[in-house]
Amino acid sequence: MTDEDEAASVRQLWSALGLPGVIDVHTHFMPKSVMDKVWNYFDSSGPLVGRHWPITYRADESRRVEMLRQFGVRGFTSLIYPHKPQMAAWLNQWAVEFARSTPDCLATATFYPEPDAADYVETAIRDGVRVFKAHIQVGRYEPNDPLLDRVWGLVEDAGVPVVVHCGSGPVPGEYTGPEPIRRLLRRYPRLRLIVAHMGMPEYAEFLDICESAADVRLDTTMAFTPFVEEQMPFPVSQLPRLRHLQDRILFGSDFPNIPYRYSDAMRSLTELPGVDDDWLRAVFYQNAATVFYPLE
């Protein structure tokens, strides 16, 4: 499939729903040196990946931005994440510049449990950050670490959404799973969390959390695709709950780090049993628009 053919395929999917495009809350743009290391890690089938995982959209940064625009993606993120101390502030500085030069990218920031975390998070909020990324699996940290207490308080008060990878897929980590998030929400009940990957493989538990917390949402990143269904299938028994949570589910792709086509991620959602066009319109566009573009 040529790039032009795929762009046409993606655009056909959302245009058939009468949408103006797609909002993708889970895309990755990073400094080149970091992205290269991420891709090398995927290439090596590292322990946090757990299986062969080819990168479909391995291209330079400008080309990747252009691809999303050709797909009709109206808004996206530059989800950055540190795996060690003294990395987050530098990533945030890069992301500020990327958002300034890429107006369709939501200004993104991240954090790590370290003494100055609250200072650079406060700076990011003051500078207009639109979304944070927290990666519990890669960062290998407890979200309730005392070094993050002031961070969560600042983020909660500011009402900035946090895309958080906290499920135990593709492989479990020491602090992944629903219980650390339950504890976090008991302490900061107004946090606007967007649980990445539908919380895979603890789908039911994170659906429970979403139902019980008014400001928690889920993103569809990689869930329901054949690649994930082979090893971490979404339980058939939980499918009816997707309709009930129609307004709390947002489309995410994990572009460019996916081992299949962007159109495959979208089509997997259109083929879910029991969903209708209203559900698809909400997930592909309207829910994210409500969160990130409420005045438009």
UniProtKB/TrEMBL annotation:
CDD domains: metallo-dependent_hydrolases (cd01292). Keywords: Hydrolase, Lyase. It comes from the Bacteria. Gene3D superfamilies: Metal-dependent hydrolases. SUPFAM superfamilies: Metallo-dependent hydrolases. This is Amidohydrolase. One of its GO terms (molecular function) is carboxy-lyase activity. InterPro entries: ACMSD (IPR032465), Amidohydro-rel (IPR006680), Metal_Hydrolase (IPR032466). GO terms for cellular component: cytoplasm. PANTHER family: 2-AMINO-3-CARBOXYLMUCONATE-6-SEMIALDEHYDE DECARBOXYLASE, ISO-OROTATE DECARBOXYLASE (EUROFUNG). GO terms for biological process: secondary metabolic process. Residues 23-292 form the Amidohydrolase-related domain. Pfam families: Amidohydro_2.
